[in-house]
Amino acid sequence: MSNEEQKDLPKGVVLKEHSYDGIQEYDQRLPRWWLLTLYGAIIFSAVFFMIDKYYSGSESSSERVESELRQINAIRLASSIDVSDNEMYWEMSQISTFTESGEKLFQSTCSACHGANLEGGIGFNLVDGEWIHGAAPSEIYQTIYDGVPNTGMQAWGTTLGQKRITEIVAFILSKNDETSMRASAAQEQ
To answer: Alpha-carbon distance 81 to 65, whole Å?
Structure first.
């Protein structure tokens, strides 16, 4: 580097000897504020990773994703109720949101006749595998919705509505064996 080029530079600035495409590089340390920002970002990211990975609760990220997917599926099922779709009822019977609210409704409206444990009483036993009015989930829904004329089973359709009745059906199905219920429904057809 020539003395003329060094004179044009501010005080304390030194250029390296090599040149690339006519450009020379400064030979200086990075500013302290810049280095503190860099090291602070590295430390912050390491601490954040450790907290997120090991101290964010008992759920791992895959468990959180599965939980979110179950919630999305529950919302999808609740908003698109097709009372003739038997598979939908079986899906609902596996989701605790539906079975818990269905259990509350069952206890408040149905347990007086069908018993708190669905074992029967005035009404039929709902867990013994015998279905007088149909074992398919859509038939159970229709029985609850329309009732059974000339018996003690009243029509609950106008009182409870579609969503609440599907929750009750989901609760009833959750207390029954799916394979035997499907077999009983297939025998009826």
So the answer is: 24
